[in-house]
Specification:
Elements lengths: L8 H8 L7 E2 L13 H7 L13 H11 L6 E4 L2 H5 L2 H4 L4 E6 L4 H8 L3 E6 L10 H8 L4 E5 L11 H10 L4 E5 L23 E6 L12 E5 L1 H8 L9 H12 L1 H25 L6 E3 L6 E6 L4 H9 L3 E2 L1 E2 L10 E5 L3 H16 L4
Parallel strand pairs: 1-11, 3-4, 3-5, 5-6, 6-7
Antiparallel strand pairs: 2-8, 7-8, 9-10, 10-13, 12-13
Helix pairs in contact: 3-10, 11-13
Bound molecules: pyridoxal-5'-phosphate.
């Protein structure tokens, strides 16, 4: 069984004796506003596409992404989720040793382990609000052929400036940097942070998941962009038709309407800023929990009095599924992550957390 990707809905439903649909899943990071409005109707109207093979390399879908970002389509590859690239890059680039800026998404390490690539972590610390020390990262990058950086980072929310990243990448020309921008579209002014157009940089690839911002994780779509020399190496490991026909069509449709994309991002970003503020405010005076700053809609918290499994159990009684972060290297069973949803649900979760933490004193 594959684990480590958020909470287990079925387990919670079984424990508290309710239906799967009654669980409020705040453990996985998806756009709280849902997908762009027309996606459901588009899928219904285009279901016949599954009767034929799609483009083997999803070139049309890649072109949509490339055109939107103003980059050469030859510098973009489409995959069935960025997961495809995370699990292909270490092999395709012949890496022996990878460095991971952590605590971070566990699949970077899992992919390397599966491919016999050694990993080490450059860990950011709670006492520094998980702000990365780029000098330390630079020193440790010295011995690595691959460096994974998630920007903004899952689960800490730490965001690194574009210029700082460019300097770091420029300093280590023999090391390939994988910058995972899967959550960047949620950040206000994301465009000022993105490296997606830096395809002239020979030692950089950028990952852009479509799953999170467009809330279509079940379709499995994502992109890798980078220099053509790197694209060629990854392409050598590509399996034909790995992005299915409906997924290709949906993403093409999104990029066929480029004028709708930024307004959709902006609507999401404004919603997140407002709702994150309300959630943080609701827990501001609560003892026993510290929320870390984040520019996105998932919030990392440290618990002072009870463990993460215990808080998960208590809010689970109220049907909330939250993320126990014990399995993130560099965190412990004192950390949890909340992925925010609608106003009412976020405030109900805050109330459930308060009650759960207050119970310790009774
Ligand atoms: C940081 C990060 N990158 C990549 C992924 C993989 O997403 P996908 O394969 O759906 O693009 C995830 C999924 O949770 C993630 O958190």
């Amino acid at each position: 069984m594959i684990q480590g990707h958020g909470g287990n809905k079925q387990q919670l439903a079984d424990r508290i004796g309710c239906g799967l649909e009654d669980i409020i899943d705040m453990s996985s990071n998806l756009n709280p506003l849902g997908p762009p409005k027309r996606i459901h109707a588009f899928i219904r109207e285009n279901i016949h596409l599954i009767h034929a093979l799609p483009e083997p390399d999803a070139a049309g879908m890649s072109k949509g992404f490339a055109d939107y970002h103003g980059i050469d389509p030859g510098c973009v590859m489409a995959g069935n989720g960025t997961t495809f690239f995370i699990y292909t890059l270490p092999l395709a680039l012949g890496a022996k040793k990878a460095l991971i800026l952590g605590p971070a998404y566990a699949d970077y390490e899992d992919a390397c382990a599966a491919l016999n690539v050694k990993t080490c972590h450059c860990l950011t610390l709670a006492q520094n609000n998980f702000v990365p020390d780029l000098d330390q990262l630079s020193a440790e990058a010295q011995g690595a052929d691959l460096v994974f950086i998630c920007n903004p980072n899952n689960p800490t929310g730490a965001l690194i400036d574009k210029q700082d990243l460019e300097r770091l990448i420029g300093r280590h020309t023999n090391t390939c940097f994988v910058v995972d921008e899967s959550y960047l579209p949620f950040v206000p002014d994301a465009e000022a942070f993105s490296l997606v157009t830096q395809t002239h940089q020979p030692n950089l690839v950028v990952l852009s998941s479509m799953s999170k911002i467009f809330r279509i994780p079940g379709l499995r779509t994502g992109f890798l962009s980078g220099a053509k020399t790197l694209i060629r190496k990854v392409m050598a490991h590509y399996q034909p038709w790995s992005v299915n026909a409906l997924a290709q069509a949906v993403i093409k449709n999104i990029y066929d309407h480029p004028g709708d994309i930024l307004p959709f991002y902006r609507q999401t970003r404004e919603f997140i800023v407002k709702e994150r503020r309300a959630f943080v405010h609701a827990l501001a005076e609560t003892e026993g929990i510290r929320l870390f700053d984040t520019p996105v809609y998932f919030v990392l918290a440290r618990l002072d009095r009870i463990s993460a499994p215990e808080l998960c159990r208590r809010v689970g009684d109220d049907r909330f599924l939250i993320r126990d972060c014990a399995n993130f290297k560099g965190l412990s069973d004192r950390f949890v992550r909340f992925s925010l949803k609608t106003h009412e649900i976020n405030l109900a979760l805050a109330q459930s957390i308060k009650t759960a933490l207050a119970r310790e004193h009774t």
